[in-house]
Amino acid sequence: MELPQTRDLLEKLAEAIRAEISGPVFMVGIHTGGAWLARALHDMLHLNTPLGTLDISFYRDDFERIGLHPEVKPSDIPFDVDAADILLVDDVLYTGRTVRAAINELFDYGRPSRIRLAVLVDRGGRELPIEAGFKGIRIDPGENRMIDLLKNEKGELQLRLRPE
Amino acid sequence: MMQYNRQINRDGELQHLLTVEGLPASMLHRILDAAESFVGVTEREVKKVPLLRGKAIFNLFFEPSTRTRTTFEIAAKRLSADVINLNIGASSQSKGETLLDTVNNLSAMHADMFIVRHAQSGAAHLIASHVAPEIHVINAGDGRHAHPTQALLDMYTIRHFKKNFNGLRVAIVGDIMHSRVARSQIHALTTLGVPEVRVIAPKTLLPKGVEHLGVHPYHDLSKGLKGVDVLLMLRLQNERMQGALLPSAQEYFKYYGLTPEKLALAKPDAIVMHPGPMNRGVEIDSSVADGPQSVILPQVTFGIAVRMAVMSILAGS
Q: Theoretical Cys-Cys bridge with A117: which of A96, A132, A155, B174, CB 3.0 to 4.6 Å?
């Protein structure tokens, strides 16, 4: 199976979000792929609100099994979360566990008025009742395949499909 | 003979933190990197993450300590663990219970981690070698041997203010002989690649052969401070006066106390650190301790994040 051009998916996603934006929206990307994607969307949508990033390592539900992620990065939420309209951004939506962790972390900063979710790829396989309001594409790559987002030296984002 | 590799498990992960000696630079950097993320947590509205929810952490302090015990307690609480503080000097030990019996009893209460402060060198090591494999031990200071989390928070502070280690000249000033802090600092600084570590002390407070640890000894504070980037001051313990190692606190201050005039010999942007509690007018002048080059209070704040990092890395291994 082949993935569509990442650039096309990105534009489709930006278009979908643009149609639904009214009032200030605060974008938050989940490390690492989601943070790159949020940066790109933030530029494409010409948002003038500050851009946030989350590292959900401290909120993962598999800490007991795999321990602390070796490359944990600081979360950076440069705006007041209380009453903010937040758009959470991640590259790939799969089980929903990462998004659960991200929502929990956001609530430790304050009480947002709303959180919506945008993803480049929804690959199904949900284990929690979590859905993305905005998505680039819905595909089913099969259980033993992995999709991730890469960034090349020119700063271009590229989806990659590979065996797990 | 100590087995330093006891702290690393078969998968190469940190099982206990007993000493900095023998830990690779990559492990130290991993702890400092994780601490950087925890600094962000401590600045939030909710200063807590759910990482160690349901874990029982026992603070076993066989020797009095306020700062270290409190910062470990805050760190554990910010990780959502349950903390039990035991001031052992005042309980079982005075009734004759051995160290290992105390630990066995606490293990039977389903402890997940022990933070140990003890006047005997090797106490944390002894406990680590007897506990069940799922229990983690952190050395919070053992005799003259080691105080690894203090050294790590010092390294964090240096990295925060100086960005990296590889161009620095660092001086450790004071009672090197009796200091577990100095020993851990020396191992951390040399492992992280600091090119020049100086130790400055009177002859009676500088151990023979200290240069074998890769440091340069000085007996003259003015010479030793020339051109340094970082000053690590040590606490001078009062009992040293009684042991005839020093004539008096006043005389110590005259030759080894850090005054603004002495500090001016270091680089203009040099930072001054102290593990606390400070003896003002003995090892450090108040105008330096409270001056613009002092980073003594940031050290305390960073200490919480560093201890959160160590606890979560251990608990996840």
A: A132
Is there a domain that residue A54 lies in? yes
Is A83 in CB contact (< 8 Å) with chain B?
A: no
Chain A contact set for B313 (CB, 8 A): 67-68
Residues in chain B closer than 8 A to A68 (CB atoms): 34, 51, 312-313, 316
Q: How confident is the model at residue B2 (pLDDT cuts 50, 70, 90)?
A: very low
Max distance between CA atoms of chain B, in angstroms, equals 56
CB B104 within 8 Å of CB B84? no
**CB within 8 Å: B51 and A70:** no
Cβ-Cβ contacts under 8 Å, A73 against chain B:
37
Cα angle for residues B217, B24, B60 (degrees, 5° grid): 85
Q: Is residue A1 part of a domain?
A: no
Q: What is the mean pLDDT of residues B287-311?
A: 97
The pLDDT value given to residue B99: 85
Q: How many other CB atoms are there within 10 angstroms of residue B274's CB atom?
A: 25
The CATH number assigned to the domain holding A120 equals: 3.40.50.2020
Residue for token digits 């609480």?
Answer: B77
Q: What are the pLDDT digits (tens) for B120-167?
A: 999 999 999 999 999 999 999 999 999 999 999 999 999 999 999 999
Is A110 in CB contact (< 8 Å) with chain B? yes
Q: How many CB pairs under 8 A join A and B?
A: 53
* Integer angstrom CA distances of residue A150 from A6, A99, A156, B222: 10, 20, 8, 54
For residue A19, being part of any structural domain is answered with yes
When divided into structural domains, chain A yields a total of 1
- CB distance A72–B34 less than 8 Å? yes
- What is the span of the domain harbouring residue A91? 6-161
Three state DSSP letters for chain B: CCCHHHHECCCCCECCECCCCCCCHHHHHHHHHHHHHHHHHHCCCCCCCCCCCCCEEEEEECCCCCHHHHHHHHHHHHCCCEEEEEEHHHCHHHHCCCHHHHHHHHHHCCCCEEEEEECCCCHHHHHHCCCCCCCEEEEEEECCCECHHHHHHHHHHHHHHHCCCCCCEEEEECCCCCCHHHHHHHHHHHHCCCCEEEEECCHHHCCCCHHHHCCEEECCHHHHHCCCCEEEECCCCCHHHHCCCCCCHHHHHHHHCECHHHHCCCCCCCEEECCCCCCECCCECHHHHCCCCECHHHHHHHHHHHHHHHHHHHHCC
d(CA B296, CA A56): 31
Among left, alpha and beta (phi > 0; psi -120 to 50; other), residue B220 is beta
- Report if residue A94 sits inside a domain: yes
Nearest CA distance, B102 vs chain A (angstrom): 27
